Amino acid sequence: MIDIIRQRRSIRKFTEQVVEEDKLKLLQEAALRSPASKSANAWEFVVVQDRSLIQQLATSKPFGSKLLETAPLAIVITADETKTEAWIEDCSVASVFLQLTAQALGLGSCWVQIRGRNHSDEKTAEEYVREVLEIPSNLSVLSIIAVGYPAQERRPVETADLQWEKIHSNKFGVKE
Ligand SMILES: Cc1cc2nc3c(=O)[nH]c(=O)nc-3n(C[C@H](O)[C@H](O)[C@H](O)COP(=O)(O)O)c2cc1C
Predict the structure, then answer these.
(1) What atom in ligand 1 is closest to the CA of residue 9?
(2) Is the pLDDT of residue 176 over 90?
(3) 121 belongs to a structural domain
(4) Is 90 exceeded by the pLDDT of residue 86?
(5) Residue 93 CB–ligand 1 contact under 6 Å
(6) What's the CATH number where 112 sits?
(7) For residue 41, what pLDDT band results from cuts at 50, 70 and 90?
């Protein structure tokens, strides 16, 4: 697992190779196995492979969603807020489970933030994504995980370059 965590970097350019069915199934399984507060499992995942829909998702935001343009797969993470107050946490955990599983399968991924972002002056990114994919209005949209075979190489951050100063020992500010 630590090797998968070390190797994972956000990938924003993908090759044209489609994600095979068996890998897609494993990604779906990983999402459904993600832990959720009180086992509410309030999430719903929209698996998008249709090219024209992915192109529309790529314009969800003025910045930060264009990377979807080359992605052969986009997994949209939504949840019913009325089912749990921890929906943001639950959807975030599922998003990261998807990213780490993608890495383990030799795929690249990138998180596209939707919650709290705007599509335009008139429309939130959530409203836009809901419209494009006909997602019911009771579901909130947290993120889109772009997945595909990497068309760019990104080196892992060196272990020595991590922000080790952010680790505190027993009491805040105390270093080991
Ligand atoms: C909550 C969250 C929201 C993010 N939103 C976006 C986004 O909208 N667009 C994007 O290109 N990257 C997005 N990212 C990816 C981050 O920019 C990236 O994880 C960060 O720069 C660290 O780089 P790394 O993933 O390669 O380690 C997001 C990541 C997280 C965790």
Answers:
(1) 26
(2) no
(3) yes
(4) yes
(5) no
(6) 3.40.109.10
(7) very high
